[in-house]
Amino acid sequence: MSIIEVAGLTKCFDDITAVNKASFSVKRGEVFGFLGPNGAGKTTTISMLTGLARPTAGSIRIAGYDGISDIKKAHSHIGVVPDESNLYPEMSGYENLVFCASLYGMCCSEAQERARLLLDEFGLISAKDRSFGVYSKGMKRRLTIAAGIIHNPRILFLDEPTTGIDVVSARHIRRLIEKLHHQKTTIFLTTHYIEDAQRLCNRIAFIAEGRILALDTVENLLDAFEKNIVLPVGPTVFLLRMRRPLKRSSPICQSGLFQKKRYRLLQKKRLIFSPLCRFLKNGISPSMRRLLYVRFWKMSFSILPKGKKGAVCEIFEDIWEYITKRYEELLS
């Protein structure tokens, strides 16, 4: 059953169309990823879904309410975590949460209990009395998420939750998202990190220039492409020496063939780079590794869509950008 239904959603600013006839639905309890480059229309879409911006055209149904005419009734079911925190820097973490709870009509004792519970759950209890302004970026992001779920919303909107923070904090936030998902919270997640989408989301939508170009599970979207990985490893004599260990040791290789001084790995299953990367780093001898013209961390992978050639993604995090730019051509 869908908890969010969007049809023909459009937002124009003068002669600029920020969102162009977007249509999609979000299932109850799923993590729905919304991927696209900066300026694609992700934040504008969230603003319309949460009532911060009025659509130029289209319809929204959220938590059983009309998302345009009855958005105030839906607000008690919605939590919003913006890309930039909206909490008060001069107030402590604890005071910020208690204040946010009071905005949803919680009594003082209930608000205080809920604030302490979330501070402990989010690993911030030791910093509860510090001013929010002195928190690190990762701590600020965690407290902002805590404020977004202070009222136990059925739907949580997360706008770029792991952008601009350190690796450890990003990992902590991913775990929090996974925990909320296990608690059956519906999560609408905007990001431009494909690894976040692959790890966290049940389905993802790719948006570019305000238009949704593709919507499906990560696996089904990538199934639209031939998962051919090309290693630019040089002369044929080197390839002949690498062929057997590559086919034997790489856990993702189904078969391999030589083409113009390159070794092409034919992968028939889901596109996963990490096993190949681990193999190239640790699974071959130093002498064999030296046969590569480029080192492991400078390798480039060629992702060849069906019927197309020459599209190169240098690192796997940029696959989403390739799909965003090229998927419309495949659909035509």
TrEMBL record:
Residues 4-234 form the ABC transporter domain. One of its GO terms (molecular function) is ATP hydrolysis activity. Keywords: ATP-binding, Nodulation, Nucleotide-binding, Transport. The keyword Manganese does not apply. Pfam families: ABC_tran. InterPro entries: AAA+_ATPase, ABC_transporter-like_ATP-bd, ABC_transporter-like_CS, ABC_transporter_ATP-binding, P-loop_NTPase. The keyword ATP-binding applies. Belongs to the ABC transporter superfamily. This is ABC transporter, ATP-binding protein.
